Amino acid sequence: MNVHKPSRSSVIGTGTLAATLLLTVCGTAGAQTPPTAVDKATTATAAPRSAPPRCTADDLAATVQLQNTGSAKNAGSAMVMLQNKGSRTCTLRGYPGFAGLLANNRSDTLAVKRVPHPGPPMRVTLKPGATAFAGLKWTTCQKSDKNCHVIAGLRLTPPDGNRQLTAKVVGLNGQAVTQLTVSAAGLTTGTLQSTSQGVVFTPGS
Predict the structure, then answer these.
(1) Cβ atoms 15, 22 nearer than 8 A
(2) Over 50-85, what HEC string results?
(3) pTM of the full predicted structure?
(4) What are 107-122's pLDDT values in tens digits?
């Protein structure tokens, strides 16, 4: 039986053809168009807006409106109102600070207790003209008591502030109040809130 053997030239030709096909395939794969680069300008997230600055004494006007003047055996209470009198939006969070104001315009140091009433501290954003509210209470005393603080008004420090402003103290009738008696226990203040609802301390609270 005659066995046909491929000639040397046909083997070389076959190998050359295979190599050519391989190069063609590799070249085609390598020539693929690279993916389009992502435009970073269109995918970048917008920079967050900076939060309004905190309110300072220069931004605010303070009013303390008495709700109950109290008696020697009872507690006095008031609503504290901090109004943004400026032209910029600012924020408050926490508790106002207090000091007594004597008739000679000197400060009188008062003990101040902080309680989370009517709720924990919250961030209050005040646009120009807006007001934040807090409750205030104290026990009155007899002027004859050597530990009794007889004050003509109140000075107030905004949260995280270091400057005081003089509060306007008024009664429910809107008339100025020029004398308060505060026992040695001092004042108790609640948290600043965005509304007046619930901020006033109720008797016995």
Answers:
(1) no
(2) CCCCECCHHHEEEEEEEEECCCCCCEEEEEEEEEEC
(3) 0.74
(4) 999 999 999 999 999 9
Give the chain's residues under pLDDT 50.
1-31, 33, 35-47, 72
Which residues are bridge partners to 129 per DSSP? Answer: none
* Helix (H), strand (E) at residue 9: helix 8-30
Which string of b and e fits 115-140 if b means at least 16 CB within 10 Å? eebbeebeebbbeeeebbbbbbbbbb
Residues 6+ apart with CB under 8 A from 84: 55, 59, 60, 90, 126, 127, 128, 129, 130, 131
Q: Which amino acid, one-letter code, is at 191? A: T
pLDDT of residue 50: 81
Residues 6+ apart with CB under 8 A from 120: 191
